[in-house]
Design brief:
434 Repressor (Amino-terminal Domain), mainly alpha, single chain
């Protein structure tokens, strides 16, 4: 896993992929990270969270944060992301991304 992450939802997708690859539920990951389930939901959705929560979840996934100079996303990258969001709002694939965990915080 060496993808460059520039947008919050890209980070969320990477975290979710790693969690699933490890066979962990959101609840199990939250417990390993010492956080409530809501933290995992927020991070995987690309929503705001704290740096300490991100680092705790990364650690629980066996990952570390590495900073590299890459610059800001290009206008085309941002536009592509908005097009993807618009397309998924217009019908998508019908999947809600739920892995069976309920959405109540622990």
């Amino acid at each position: 896993m060496a993808d460059i992450v520039r947008l919050p939802d890209e980070l969320g997708g990477q975290l979710q992929a790693r969690r699933r690859a490890l066979g962990l539920s959101k609840s199990e990951l939250a417990q390993r990270a010492g956080k409530v389930r809501e933290v995992v939901y927020r991070l995987e959705a690309g929503a705001d969270s704290t740096v300490s929560s991100l680092l705790a979840v990364l650690g629980a996934l066996g990952l570390a944060l590495r900073l590299e100079p890459v610059g800001l996303p290009t206008a085309e990258e941002v536009a592509r992301r908005f097009r993807m969001d618009d397309e998924s709002d217009d019908g998508g694939d019908g999947e809600d991304g739920d892995d069976g965990d309920d959405h109540r915080a622990a």
